[in-house]
Amino acid sequence: MELSGMIFKYAVENNKQVIISTAKLLGFWDGKIMVFESENDSETLMDFMVFEKSVQNDAAYQRFYNTAPKLDDLQQVNMNGILNFHSSIFEVKSIDSKECTIVLEDLMDANQIEYILMDIGMSKTAHAGFVLFTRLIPIRDVNMTSGVSFGFEKSNRDKLLSALSLAEFKKRRKLTKTELYILMNEKNKQYGVETRTE
After folding, report:
1. What does 50-111 look like in DSSP terms, one character per residue?
2. Options 1.10.1750, 1.10.20, 2.40.50, 2.60.40; CATH of 86-191
3. DSSP state of 141
4. pLDDT by residue (tens digit) across 116-170?
5. 45, 119, 132, 168 — which has fewest CB within 10 A?
6. Are 52 and 26 in contact (CB under 8 A)?
7. What are the residue boundaries of the structural domains of the chain, listed by start?
């Protein structure tokens, strides 16, 4: 979170237009002011500005890294994870609440690859079958989230995947990571459930 905060500060410093453009993409701008429906919306905006392309050629985390920042060892480990993040729609297969780990299956991968997510809050509030859009950041032998996740009940799984298929059909190609984030944010507003990450 500290490193993401540094990158966010780098992204918005002296650049009000980037904030407005990003807010418009996510539906948080009403023409004059920022409008948030929940306290999670500001985190969604920050997460998007750090990890996704909005008005720049490269996402803020990549532009920040290209400046060769001075990072301590832990920050460098986290930066390496950020540079290799993987965002997708996942289904919770199992949870180990003692170890605070969750086994996730990638629903957008034909090979149904599984990932281990370490998250205290999610391991206590999610359940098998829960569907999650999140960004996994590999740190050593586990994954963390970037801090923002959109959760959906199992009953909405097919509706969510149908919305993805329809969006890709309309564009006649796979969605970019940024387009996927925007779509999942939209669906989260319609029928998402609150998630807790730590």
Report:
1. HHS-SSSSS-HHHHHHHT-----HHHHHHHHHHHT-EEEEEEEEEEETTTTEEEEEETT-TT
2. 2.40.50
3. T
4. 999 998 888 889 999 999 999 999 888 999 888 999 999 999 999 999 999 999 9
5. 168
6. no
7. 2-83, 86-191
